Amino acid sequence: MREFDFIIHGDEYHVELKSLVGNIAELDVNGTNYSVEIKQMASPKVKTPILVRSIPSNVPVDNPKTSKPSQPHGAGKVLAPLPGVVLSIKVNIGDTVKNGDVLLIMEAMKMENEIRTDISGTIKLIQVKPNDTVLEGDVLVVIEA
What we know:
four-stranded antiparallel sheet, 145 residues, mainly beta, rod-shaped
């Protein structure tokens, strides 16, 4: 396994560590085999590394992935709250909607989810169609106040 050279009280010793199982070491000291018990073995301290990732410069940090009901009302975008598939669209461009109206139905995680508006206004743009797959944060509908 490993070899060591020691000088103890002026005498030289060539030590070869043949095996180490638990606290029993098999040693060859100057050609003579010894089986020794290690009383206490110093274990190296393992420091857990800390992974620090920087935010890439091309990723916007100010844009939330989903719309929040507490955001100021006005012209805005309705974003997909989670990944899924658009099943049906309940509004058309030019329709007037009020806070809480259902805009579309999405299937996500094997459940149908009603996507509602949190602002009142007129539907300006519909970015999706039935059977479209969307990711969290994708723009679904744009509403103009």
